[in-house]
Every structure is written in structure tokens, then in C-alpha cells.
Design brief:
138 residues; mainly alpha; 81% helix; membrane
């Protein structure tokens, strides 16, 4: 298994555990319902999406009988996705509990853009791997 595949899967399982703890916190103390954003993003972008990335990178090229287009893009995507997600939830949590708006919201949006860039890297890497290049007549 490639290291970036393993890293996505390990991160995914860690996010599952974290999001579960946030879910329990919200059920135990409804005052923490302000953390719905954190819980849902750790669950969807963390657990679900990271698992899809890991399994997708491992399985889809094999189904297509091809090598992944760019290992470097997959590795960069891993870091962008994780830094983006962690940054978003930290900025959101601090701004929610401190009441600070301006700078933290903008920084959170920057982390969100990092997350979107990681998604686009996955889209590029998968399409470049799975869609065959048109053959040119000789």
C-alpha cells in the first residue's frame, strides 16, 4: 500500500474517533451544540472523505489497469486536506467561543480554500489516471 493511501486511511479513522467524541459532548451538554460545524466537518471531510481518498487512490487505478498519474499530487493533497480541515475547525471553534470575527473568519476561509484545492487535486489526479488519452493517428 502506498504511503499516501495509508496516511489517508489512518487520518480517516482518527477523524472518526474525534468526531464521535464531539458528538457525545454535544449530546451530554447541549451548550456544546455550537460545535455542530466541527462535528460535521470532522465526520464528512475527515472520516468519510479521507477514507474515500485513500480507498479511491488504492483501488481505482488498479481497476483501470493504470498507475496513478501523480504520486506527488496525491501526497500534496493529503497535506492540503488535513491542514485545511484542522485549520477550519480550529478557526471556527476559537471564533465561536471567543466572539472574535474578522481575522479568524478570513483565516478559516483560507483554510476552506485549501480544502477545496485538495478536492480539485483529487479530481485532477483521478481523471488524469482513469480517462485514457485520445490516440493520435500515425
Amino acid at each position: 500500500m502506498d504511503s499516501y493511501v495509508k496516511n489517508f486511511i489512518i487520518a480517516s479513522v482518527v477523524y472518526l474517533g474525534l468526531s464521535s467524541l464531539f458528538g457525545i459532548m454535544m449530546m451530554a451538554a447541549p451548550a456544546h451544540l455550537t460545535l455542530k460545524f466541527v462535528h460535521s466537518h470532522l465526520m464528512l471531510l475527515g472520516w468519510v472523505t479521507m477514507m474515500i481518498y485513500g480507498v479511491g487512490y488504492h483501488v481505482l487505478p488498479r481497476f483501470a489497469g493504470r498507475l496513478i498519474k501523480s504520486r506527488k499530487a496525491a501526497e500534496a493533497q493529503f497535506w492540503l486536506a488535513n491542514i485545511g480541515l484542522i485549520g477550519m475547525v480550529i478557526c471556527y471553534t476559537i471564533s465561536t467561543y471567543s466572539g472574535a470575527e474578522g481575522g479568524l473568519r478570513i483565516l478559516g476561509a483560507v483554510f476552506g480554500l485549501m480544502e477545496a484545492a485538495s478536492i480539485m487535486l483529487f479530481v485532477y489526479n483521478m481523471l488524469a489516471t482513469l480517462v485514457p488519452k485520445p490516440e493520435h493517428p500515425a
